[in-house]
Amino acid sequence: MTDLPHCDTLALVRQGHALHITLNRPQARNAMSLAMVAELSAVFSRIEADDTLRAVVLRGADGHFCAGGDIKDMAGARSLPAGEGDQDPFYRLNRAFGHMIQQANESSKVVIAVLEGAVMGGGFGLACISDVAIGGPTVTFALPETSLGVIPAQIAPFVVERIGLTQTRRLALLGSKVKGNEALQLGLLHQLCGDGDELDTAIATALDRVRHCAPQATANTKRLLHRVGKEPMGALLDDAAAQFAAAVRGPEGAEGTMAFVQKRPPAWADIDTADNH
């Protein structure tokens, strides 16, 4: 079992097969500071090789997910000498977030985002890399960058992947806010909950479904999905068939088939979800 790093901007709680990560800067509506970016990156790096951990639940403290980037970091970068290319402090600040969000996007774990209150800027991008997005009644999405004279540089590509180019154009170029049912219709949310109890039930249900899915098959499926549209379809399907054959003959395929025949849960579903660390 992986030892988790010490974090100042995140609250980490291990519960059975899930790691609950709470963005914990409530005084700033959990705005994404450089320290938070570095800590999120460290956590995702540390847990990647932990096969006992199968899901990550991302949430914000005190009713807000994340209000975007930390303006104080922007001010700090402005006070530094300007550099050329990747030596520019603004480049480094922005690109650090991009590396982290790409890392989270490519994680082998099932990433469940619990979205409440402000989901803006970097928080919007983080929501768009989740595998399961569950919203509360106060959720409000926005890409306000253009109204601040900047661009959603590391965020926009993931929003396009999530909801398509035409809707991303509208949200990014107008800075419009999107709430509740509209977010659900756009595909920013998979589920919209009416209150806290319903939200807790939705999280528990998602984590239970993760428990019933084979961990290696889940990780391989996620990697396969990320390749769609980036490789020639014929070659992709050839490789997918090879992976399927290996999975059928592998230990998870054998156990899954036997469990189905014997009308019992597979071995990977037999874990203690109440285990807290």
TrEMBL record:
Example of a GO MF term: catalytic activity
Lineage, uppermost ranks: Bacteria, Pseudomonadati, Pseudomonadota, Gammaproteobacteria, Pseudomonadales
Annotated GO biological process: isoprenoid catabolic process
SUPFAM superfamilies: ClpP/crotonase
InterPro entries, A to Z: ClpP/crotonase-like_dom_sf (IPR029045), Enoyl-CoA_hydra/iso (IPR001753), Enoyl-CoA_hydra_C (IPR014748), Enoyl-CoA_Hydratase/Isomerase (IPR051683)
Identification of the protein by name: Isohexenylglutaconyl-CoA hydratase
PANTHER family found in the cross-reference section: ENOYL-COA HYDRATASE, POLYKETIDE BIOSYNTHESIS ENOYL-COA HYDRATASE PKSH-RELATED
Family: Belongs to the enoyl-CoA hydratase/isomerase family.
Matching Pfam families: ECH_1
Highest taxon in the source lineage: Bacteria
CDD domains for this protein: crotonase-like (cd06558)
